[in-house]
Amino acid sequence: xxxxxxxxxxxxxxxxxxxxxxxxxxxxxxxxxxxxxxxxxxxxxxxxxxxxxxxxxxxxxxxxxxxxxxxxxxxxxxxxxxxxxxxxxxxxxxxxxxxxxxxxxxxxxxxxxxxxxxxxxxxxxxxxxxxxxxxxxxxxxxxxxxxxxxxxxxxxxxxxxxxxxxxxxxxxxxxxxxxxxxxxxxxxxxxxxxxxxxxxxxxxxx
Length: 206
What we know:
Blueprint: E1 5-8, H1 15-24, E2 29-32, E3 43-48, H2 52-60, H3 64-73, E4 77-82, H4 83-87, E5 91-92, E6 105-109, E7 122-127, E8 129-130, E9 145-150, E10 152-156, E11 162-167, E12 171-178, E13 181-184, H5 192-205
Parallel strand pairs: 1-2, 1-3, 3-4, 4-13, 5-6
Antiparallel strand pairs: 6-10, 7-9, 8-11, 11-12, 12-13
């Protein structure tokens, strides 16, 4: 099993939970806050919670944004989680800053009719529906469900990048992959056996 997994640590994600879940599946990982150390990794996890602009500015603070872009351009496997997934996109309706632009996608706010009883954020367990095969979901349990907490969702401009959709008022893109760039809107580190298997697949299949 690969042991050179780096978890981006710029204060925007629940990194301890990701670290602990990786440890449960027997994978070793390290936290990285120094952009120069990213060059040592073949796999990167970018967790994130909070607002889009705060997240991208935290990455920019010490040049981590450019380090992640460079890693992605040379084929390092990157998995964005929740806000981390959104930061891989071009931009977001939540803020004014540009995203990392590693995938052709944008981030939109949930838009429901005024009489809708659906609450924002979308929070809790929900199912994902497969749109194409991807090794992240290899041998996934039947009727997979994951834990979500988000008010904005990703819209992929290239539908072939969409791995799964999830319905909350309407279908949205809940995971994507383009070459070595991957993202999941849900929190695998909070999703019990489903999330454990997904992270195990990320570690072993890429």
